[in-house]
Automatic annotation (TrEMBL):
Matches recorded under Pfam families: Methyltransf_23
Record keywords: Methyltransferase, Transferase
Keyword Methyltransferase: yes
Superkingdom of the source species: Bacteria
Single annotated GO MF: methyltransferase activity
Protein name: Methyltransferase domain-containing protein
InterPro entries linked: SAM-dependent_MTases_sf
GO biological processes: methylation
PANTHER family reported in the protein's UniProt record: METHYLTRANSFERASE TYPE 11, TRANS-ACONITATE 2-METHYLTRANSFERASE-RELATED
Source species of the chain: Bradyrhizobium cajani
Length: 335
């Protein structure tokens, strides 16, 4: 019974397991990219030290996690997603900016961990922070070039390592949007966040809403597959790890449910889940050479299958107060 990384409870329950082949198919279509698919399957077996990975859940804090609790590294992401894309706007961006407007940010420093192409930083530059006071971190080389072209001070190291900006109290604000769910060694992460924060500093974190994740998995939509996402954070899990590190969970909110956005995402995600099944028609279409015709074919099939989603949509509408996409928290350094 693996120990919960968030609260330390030694008794956790296994929900299900995934195989290396199943996980690989979630990221790479073997018909479309057979060589990359084989390499990824082999890499996952080596990463886990076996051919399967369990998904477990803590009964105390509700934290869900991959077991082995090991994050994907550069090799994984180069195989699984060599050409990442980043949305220009997210709910958590707007919610964070709303909170920043209530704070005095003049002359303060901020760093965005996992900044992508800098879309969030573009929103706060010259509005909340001076450009010279903004720093950015991202592993991806293309993202680093994009950030540097915008004038941001950019780093590519690991937040948890001692050689990463080794100045105690370097930042007033730290942003981590859709990053923390990818990370292992979570106690090292929080220790480092506290180290890097100035007195009375704050961290803003957004992760996938774990209730939405379980909805998807229970209703034939996408599995939140490791080792991409390895942690399923809850308010209670955040509170536990904050208290352990002398930080305070000040605000925790879920993204509001928007029906049209939900329907668009659910139609796509449920099609992609079907396309992961070996030998299925959806897998065949998904594996055709990339072209405009292939994209149209996928869209037509996804729409044609959408009436089968009506029971799942009925459930979602009945539970809409908890099924927004993101969970957002503000964490404060109190000493």
């Amino acid at each position: 019974m693996s120990t919960c990384p968030a609260c330390g409870n030694a008794s956790t329950a296994k929900l299900f397991e995934v195989t290396a082949d199943q996980a690989s198919r979630s990221f790479v279509n073997p018909r479309q990219y057979p060589d990359r698919s084989r390499k990824l399957t082999g890499h996952l077996s080596l990463l886990w030290g076996r051919d399967t990975c369990d998904i477990r859940k803590c009964p105390d804090c509700g934290f869900g996690f991959a077991d082995p609790f090991v994050a994907g590294g550069a090799e994984f992401y180069n195989l699984a997603a060599p050409h990442p894309s980043y949305p220009a706007m997210k709910w958590e961006y707007a919610r964070t900016i709303e909170e920043l407007r209530g704070l005095s940010t003049a002359g303060k420093t901020a760093i965005d961990v996992g900044a992508g192409f800098g879309y969030f930083l573009d929103l706060i530059k010259d509005n909340c922070f001076h450009a010279s006071d903004i720093y950015a971190v991202d592993y991806n080389e293309t993202a680093q070039l994009a950030l540097q072209s915008k004038g941001y001070k950019t780093f590519s190291g690991d937040l948890r390592e001692d050689d990463f900006i080794p100045m105690r109290g370097a930042f007033d604000i730290i942003f981590m949007f859709q990053v923390f769910e990818h990370m292992d060694r979570v106690d090292d992460v929080f220790a480092r966040l506290k180290y890097l924060l100035k007195a009375q500093g704050s961290v803003f974190i957004a992760v996938p809403n774990e209730i939405r994740t379980y909805y998807m998995e229970c209703h034939e939509s996408l599995i939140d597959m490791p080792p991409n996402h390895i942690g399923r954070w809850t308010k209670e899990a955040f509170d536990s790890i904050c208290r352990r590190h002398g930080l305070r969970l000040s605000i925790c909110e879920r993204e509001p449910f928007k029906l049209l956005k939900f329907l668009r995402e659910d139609i796509v995600d449920s099609f992609l889940r079907r396309a992961e099944k070996p030998g299925s028609f959806c897998e065949f279409v998904r594996g055709l050479p990339r072209s405009k015709a292939q994209r149209i074919g996928q869209a037509v099939i996804a729409l044609a299958l959408s009436p089968l989603r009506l029971p799942a949509w009925t459930y979602a509408v009945g539970n809409r107060s908890t099924l927004g996409s993101a969970l957002w928290v503000k964490i404060d350094k109190v000493s």
